Amino acid sequence: xxxxxxxxxxxxxxxxxxxxxxxxxxxxxxxxxxxxxxxxxxxxxxxxxxxxxxxxxxxxxxxxxxxxxxxxxxxxxxxxxxxxxxxxxxxxxxxxxxxxxxxxxxxxxxxxxxxxxxxxxxxxxxxxxxxxxxxxxxxxxxxxxxxxxxxxxxxxxxxxxxxxxxxxx
Length: 169
Description:
By secondary structure, the protein is of the alpha+beta class. It has five helices and seven strands, in the order βαααβββαβαββ.
């Protein structure tokens, strides 16, 4: 038995070129698992997967400015989730449904907060889709809470409400 393996069993690292395919796959799978009722199958079925992949590729290889980053959670070499950060915010954090509740979300959130601190942030915010009880529980367990801000997004055939959660870091 070797003491060290070639790669860690689980890890979080900065996304690199080529991770866009796995990030897109994780986002779509997580949305289908958590937001099918809120967004509706008609919205999810019309997602432009190729365009999403292009946008993730650009975010990973050419972020729009300082404070923007994409991090990925891995099981060995396989990407199983991601977090996208912008100045002061975790804009997206998703884990493949079959890999949820294995610590990947917590590792991603911790790495995202570390990145935000490194970039000079003293608070972290995240938006939660109305009815996403699992995400609310996750963020609450990490010390975030609703701060009273909300926004309404039009997804085509329907509108959805998101509430902002925040915490000092």
